[in-house]
Amino acid sequence: xxxxxxxxxxxxxxxxxxxxxxxxxxxxxxxxxxxxxxxxxxxxxxxxxxxxxxxxxxxxxxxxxxxxxxxxxxxxxxxxxxxxxxxxxxxxxxxxxxxxxxxxxxxxxxxxxxxxxxxxxxxxxxxxxxxxxxxxxxxxxxxxxxxxxxxxxxxxxxxxxxxxxxxxxxxxxxxxxxxxxxxxxxxxxxxxxxxxxxxxxxxxxxxxxxxxxxxxxxxxxxxxxxxxxxxxxxxxxxxxxxxxxxxxxxxxxxxxxxxxxxxxxxxxxxxxxxxxxxxxxxxxxxxxxxxxxxxxxxxxxxxxxxxxxxxxxxxxxxxxxxxxxxxxxxxxxxxxxxxxxxxxxxxxxxxxxxxxxxxxxxxxxxxxxxxxxxxxxxxxxxxxxxxxxxxxxxxxxxxxxxxxxxxxxxxxxxxxxxxxxxxxxxxxxxxxxxxxxxxxxxxxxxxxxxxxxxxxxxxxxxxxxxxxxxxx
Amino acid sequence: xxxxxxxxxxxxxxxxxxxxxxxxxxxxxxxxxxxxxxxxxxxxxxxxxxxxxxxxxxxxxxxxxxxxxxxxxxxxxxxxxxxxxxxxxxxxxxxxxxxxxxxxxxxxxxxxxxxxxxxxxxxxxxxxxxxxxxxxxxxxxxxxxxxxxxxxxxxxxxxxxxxxxxxxxxxxxxxxxxxxxx
Lengths: 472, 182
Hints:
The complex is a heterodimer.
Chain A: H1 3-6, H2 22-34, H3 40-66, H4 81-105, H5 112-136, H6 162-195, H7 199-209, H8 216-249, H9 261-287, H10 296-326, H11 330-341, H12 345-357, H13 365-368, H14 371-398, H15 413-436, H16 442-446, H17 450-453, H18 464-468
Chain B: H1 2-5, E1 10-17, H2 20-33, E2 38-41, H3 49-53, H4 60-86, H5 99-125, E3 149-154, H6 162-171, E4 177-181
Antiparallel strand pairs in B: 1-3, 1-4, 2-3
Helix pairs in contact in B: 4-5
């Protein structure tokens, strides 16, 4: 039951510091929302990210007024920042689902204190991701044409197109992520409802909790529903980035048309996502004093996942280069030469530095045990993953088969404003989330405290539970 | 207003326990004693409590399976109908019903419907959202979402008798037994 919770057994730090009880866990997490003073960090952080969000609004309004001409895209690079950022954001979201669903099925108890805000991160990242293809449509107000609905134009989506698959994959992913996040939060919302002292908060959390009362019969169905959702979200998360990679792999452009794309993209998504979870959780645990819930154990485990997926991504880079040579296809060969020596060569080499070289530091335990070092590596990896999408998309498109149609792409200020604006939107939503909703799953943390570990000792008399019951 | 009118009618007896083990123990005893209309209230799911309370396995998985099948059939059906009957379009001689290309959307909608059925099925079977429930009238019930464990024997149980059930709950370790008004 509690291999991970006992922690110390294999020499690593525990997943929850000793000394906590059901009540202390409840009070500590709910106090962040209900009673503690809002820290200056929150006020400043929210202010800055809100300003950036306003920048996004300006950029989007101007885009709607003027059209796509305000961006640097043109023949032959018709896809650039919009799709780079789409893939980047949606990849970041994947770690949230991985932590909440896959690690739940694998019974990794250390997921418990990071799953809630990782799921929130997923939701907000998918929201940012969804903006880009919509804006890239040119006429976003006609986006509903992508959905099958009865209409007088006899208009149907092109079912054979990966871009239509994307619509279904991303909207399903957004919906299921939201359901998973919200269902996981219902019992905690009930806790906040019961602990809130201010009338407004009581009503707010009361409505969200929907009358949850912790009934055993409800838990009985709730656990089943949660498990089934995890089982459904697991193949879903793999399918989403697979479909995203189909956007490229189904095309014939050299550098895109490759069967390695689905696994390579999924690994890259998890890599970028864990980097983002580290980027967020390291400052959060410091500011809110959550070091006893988000322990070094969590940071180290995330670092290990990042190292492993980073190596898979590195393998992808090597195979791309190898296949370009091994296929003996002149266009493929030129594609890789152009990446390494063409006009965008600095981007390619920075990518290698960020994604391939920097994470090798994670082999060292001293690096994995240092939050500042982890934070810096996570930042480098996040940048690296963005560069990777730039290389795949822009560098492949700008020189394809016919030299007469080659060109150079330069992003305009509006593209940068939109991109930075979505970072602002993401952070603003994150700040609102940590202020008004429980950022750590309270009811799941209760099952990790030592007193919960004695549970069932009496029920199973074969003695095997006795040593499991030892407090950490 | 309704509460005012029906004041005094007993909905059940609520006993408080300090640990999950005490609650498990009590639930088992209550069931052995013959009580059936009862429910426990806990701050987190307790392993073994469903058995102790005598719950049957939930039918939710069947509902989710049905949802998944509906999503699967709806997706394939829509694509097949649109490409072969409603608007057949010959693209480079490819078959109208080119099913391999339909798989991703079919998969996504299967998952979507199954997930929607899982969540709304769970909420529906649990009768949520439920704005009012008598058990919230108990003064210490707010602790059920913090660190206390409750067992409630409801008055509609055939064996329910205010005095005898109260004595029974006290005997099996209930720290504080209160009457819950409807």
